[in-house]
Here is the input.
Amino acid sequence: MDNRDCILISWTARDIEGFIFPEIHDLKERFNIIVFVLNISMQDGLKDKLDEMLSEQIIADYYISPNKMHGFSFHLYMKKTTSILRKYNIKLWLFSNDILIAEKYISDNAIKPNTKKVCLTNQLTHLFSRNPAIAKNLISEIDNNKFDVKQAIDLSRNNFRGEALDGFIRNKFRTFSNPLKDIRGFIKYILLKRALIINYFIILINKKIEIVLNFYLYPLIMLGRFHPPLHLRKIPSNESLSQLSNGKALAYIFFDTYEVEAHKKLFKNNNVFLGGVRRVENTQKKEGKVLGLLTTGLGLESNLLPKKILDNYVDNFIKVCNRHKTKIIDLRPHPSMTLKNNHGFQIADNMKNKGFKCRVTSLENSLIEQAEGYSCVAGPASSALRDILLFNNEIEIIGFESISLQYFKDPIFVFGSSEGIDWINNNGDLVKSRSFNSNHRYLVSEIIINVYNNY
Here is the structure.
């Protein structure tokens, strides 16, 4: 008879293999494990690996959400699946956030009021990436009571709307320096851009309809309640500012000291921990070989990079290669990119023209596994840089500030303390970081078991 308590782990397909599978192996002796995979950028082979874990009784069962995570069929799937999950008598729910639609179904329909909840996030946090000034205030503020959550949320919303409007104007109308010079010019401008304007309003109307259906009508039918999106909620909450959780979970686990400090004050929750992972020995290390990481955060309308960003990529990659005295660099696409048509090939062609051996790799292996074959990993700001740092003792990690400024106001601070990640700054100089020390960290699995047993 299996006397282990049941744990549900819900995680995105994008990085579950590299980040969560090791934790599953650490937790299997203590828990009967159910895995719910959110089908985001799912790679070939993941289902086979889950089947293998199931056959070896490492996990008790698994579920994979539909690829299309909206619409009536998705809501119907979530209703049926969470009803099945409820029968497992889940004692602990481990999640990366609990604010999105899939997680709301789990919270409302799969777990019980006494189920313990732990949030583990390896992603760059919304608080640091979109609200760096607020995060810095939380870190520096000694008295928690001085922090005004409502004021901070209002500021965050205004900044987001301003950035969105500015981005739209910049990308769509930058060729017109003064379209409203006179009435005739304005009419000519409207007629010239009428297809774009009509398309914009069609997209806007469709988005409004999708919000009504996916956040109001379908949840009402399935669960008997609404789940309005964060930006439409009248009552300010920690969810709005963190885009992660409301702060009421039993515990939260982050991987940067600044993130721990800021979220502990934001959530007013003392059970916010600094996590560690089992670091790998880089037995496959290849001297003089660089892995470049690509990003989708640039908001491109095509698969081709503008010349300025392309030149930035090439210049930075050349600096990294020269630092490691190599002419060999591989480029790993972002999981959401198409593998046959992405801007990695554009960068590779330019690197080849400058005398480098450069290719775009597949996504066959997890990022953590692939990185073991390189002496350095470099690219714009992304959680992938930190994931590699957490798992590997020997690889040098270098971020590109100039490219990251295209989508982050303060890309270095997005990583919190940025320990262990060096940067090629906006001036093209290499800035060394404080060294990364993992010795004082408890393993994620140790934190989860301790919290579950003692709280």
Notes: Residues 160-177 have pLDDT under 50 and may be disordered. The longest helix spans residues 194-223. The chain is about 45% helix and 15% strand.
